[in-house]
Design a protein that fits this description.
5-stranded mixed beta sheet; alpha+beta
Length: 473
C-alpha cells in the first residue's frame, strides 16, 4: 500500500480524483434537495390557491343566491371555512365589513387546534381577493389560509434520499480514490521512467531509452525523448569520428612537413623550390582546415561577423576559378564558367570561401576526365551561383544530410573532414541567402546558392526558410 502512495504526483492525482468524486456526489445532493424544495413549494402554493379559490366561489354563490350580502346566510359557511383552517372576512363593494368568522362566534383557539390536527401549518399573510358576480365586483374577501406543511411521509422520503446521497458520496469518494490511484500510477510510471532515463543521459549513459507504451501525450513525450537521445548518441559518434578525422587530417600534412624538414636538416635533401612548394602546399592545407574549424566554432559561439560591402560576384568568382584552374587541370578536370554581371551585398572573403569550398568539394568527387561548370546569373533581387559537376552523384538517403557537420558521403573517394559544406551553409545563411543541392546517382550534382543582390533587402527568399540549408531531390 505504501508503494501506491509513493510520489507527490501520484498522491495529488489520487486526491484530485477523490475530491472530484465527493464533490460530484455533494453537488448531486444539493441539486436533488433544491429540486425537492422547489416541488414542495409549488405543491404548497397550489394548495393555498385552491383554498382561496374555494372560499371565493362559496361566498360569490351565497351572494348570487340571496341577491346581496346576507350575514345570516354567510354564517352557514362558517363550518366550511373552519374545515379549511382559514380565517375570512367579507366586505362589500364600499369596503364595509359584512361578515367574519369572529362575528359568527368561531373561537380562534378552535381554528388553531383544527389546523394542528390537520397538519396544515400556520396561517399565511392576509390576502384581499375580489368577489365577482356576473362580471361585476360586489365585494372583497380578506382571507388568511394555512401555509401548508410538508407531509410526514414526504419528509421521510426526503430524509431517506439525503441519507442515500450521503452514503453515495462516501462510496463515490472511495471509488474515485481507487480509480485515481490506478490512473495516477499509470500516468506516473512513464514519467518516472523518463526522469530516470534523463538522469542516465545526463550521467553519460547514452544508450538509455524509455519504452513507448501509448500514443497519448506522455507516449509522444517518450518518443521525442528517444529521438533526442538517438540524436545525442549520433552526435557523440560524429564528434568521435570527427576527432579521429581531424587528427588524421592534421597528422598527414604535419608528418610530411616534419619528414621534409628533418631531411633538409640532416642534409638528405636540399631546400629546392620543389621542396619549398611542397611544404607551402601542406601549410595551406593545414590553414584551410583550421579556418574551417574556426568558422564553425565562431558560428556556434554567435560571434560570426561579416564585413558587408557591394561586391562584384562575377569578378570574385572569375578570380577564384582562375586561381584554381591549375589544380583542376592537374586532376584531369575541365573547369568551365558562365558568369553574368551581378553585384551582391556581402563579405568578399566569406564569399570567396563559399566558392572555394564548393569547387574543392567538386574536385574531390569528380574523377579524371570529368567537368565542373560554374554558372552565375542575375535573378532580379537574387544572385544565383551554381556549381555543377559530372561526378558520381549523391544517394537519395544521403542528400538531406550533405550540409550536416562532419558528414561524408559513401561515394567519396578522397579524404576530407566533412565540414566544408557545413561551412558553406553557415556562410550563406549569414548573408541572408540559402543553399540547395540537386543530385542523382550516376548523373552528377548541382549546388545552387542564392544571395541577395546589392539592391535587394537583406532577407531570405520568400519561397524558402530563412537561413536554412536544405537538400532537395
Amino acid at each position: 500500500m505504501r508503494s501506491l502512495f509513493s510520489g507527490r504526483y501520484t498522491r495529488r492525482l489520487a486526491a484530485a480524483f477523490a475530491v472530484i468524486g465527493i464533490g460530484g456526489a455533494m453537488l448531486t445532493a444539493v441539486l436533488v434537495n433544491t429540486a425537492f424544495q422547489a416541488r414542495f413549494t409549488d405543491f404548497l402554493t397550489s394548495q393555498q390557491q385552491a383554498r382561496q379559490d374555494q372560499l371565493v366561489t362559496l361566498v360569490a354563490a351565497d351572494y348570487r343566491r340571496n341577491g346581496g350580502w346576507n350575514p345570516q346566510s354567510l354564517n352557514q359557511l362558517a363550518p366550511t371555512v373552519t374545515m379549511t383552517g382559514s380565517e375570512a372576512e367579507v366586505r362589500d363593494a364600499a369596503g364595509r365589513s359584512m361578515w367574519s368568522l369572529a362575528a359568527a362566534d368561531v373561537d380562534p383557539a378552535t381554528l388553531a387546534m383544527h389546523r394542528t390536527m390537520m397538519g396544515t401549518g400556520d396561517l399565511g399573510p392576509p390576502r384581499e381577493l375580489p368577489i365577482t358576480v356576473d362580471g361585476t365586483r360586489v365585494g372583497t374577501l380578506v382571507v388568511r389560509v394555512p401555509q401548508g406543511a410538508v407531509p410526514a411521509i414526504d419528509q421521510d422520503f426526503r430524509n431517506s434520499v439525503n441519507g442515500l446521497l450521503a452514503v453515495g458520496s462516501l462510496v463515490a469518494g472511495l471509488v474515485a480514490l481507487a480509480v485515481g490511484l490506478i490512473f495516477a500510477r499509470r500516468a506516473a510510471t512513464p514519467i518516472a521512467d523518463l526522469t530516470g532515463a534523463a538522469n542516465d543521459l545526463a550521467a553519460g549513459r547514452r544508450e538509455s531509452r524509455v519504452t513507448v507504451a501509448s500514443t497519448d501525450e506522455i507516449g509522444q513525450l517518450s518518443a521525442s525523448f528517444n529521438a533526442m537521445a538517438d540524436q545525442v548518441e549520433r552526435e557523440d559518434e560524429l564528434r568521435r569520428m570527427f576527432t579521429a578525422d581531424v587528427a588524421h587530417e592534421l597528422r598527414t600534412p604535419l608528418a610530411i612537413l616534419r619528414s621534409q624538414l628533418e631531411a633538409v636538416q640532416d642534409g638528405v635533401s636540399q631546400p629546392t623550390p620543389q621542396v619549398i612548394a611542397s611544404l607551402h602546399d601542406e601549410t595551406v592545407r593545414l590553414s584551410r582546415l583550421v579556418a574551417d574549424l574556426e568558422t564553425l566554432a565562431s558560428a556556434d559561439a554567435a560571434t560570426f561577423t561579416l564585413d558587408r560591402r557591394p561586391t562584384s560576384l562575377n569578378a570574385l568568382i572569375r578570380d577564384l576559378t582562375s586561381g584554381l584552374a591549375e589544380r583542376f587541370t592537374e586532376a584531369g578536370l575541365d573547369l568551365r564558367t558562365d558568369l553574368a554581371q551581378v553585384t551582391v551585398d556581402g563579405d568578399p572573403d566569406r564569399l570567396r570561401q563559399i566558392g572555394t569550398n564548393l569547387l574543392t568539394n567538386a574536385r574531390k568527387f569528380v574523377t579524371s576526365g570529368g567537368t565542373v561548370t560554374v554558372t552565375l546569373r542575375d535573378d532580379g533581387d537574387w544572385a544565383e551561383l551554381q556549381v555543377t559537376d559530372t561526378g558520381p552523384g549523391i544517394a537519395p538517403d544521403e542528400l538531406p544530410r550533405v550540409f550536416e557537420r562532419f558528414f561524408r558521403s559513401r561515394t567519396a573517394h578522397a579524404g576530407g573532414s566533412g565540414i566544408g559544406l557545413a561551412v558553406v551553409a553557415e556562410l550563406v545563411a549569414a548573408h541572408g541567402g540559402h543553399v540547395t543541392v540537386d543530385s542523382e546517382l550516376g548523373h552528377g550534382t548541382t549546388f545552387r546558392v542564392r544571395l541577395p543582390t546589392v539592391h535587394a533587402p537583406r532577407a531570405a527568399d520568400p519561397s524558402q526558410r530563412h537561413g536554412v540549408a536544405t537538400g532537395t531531390t
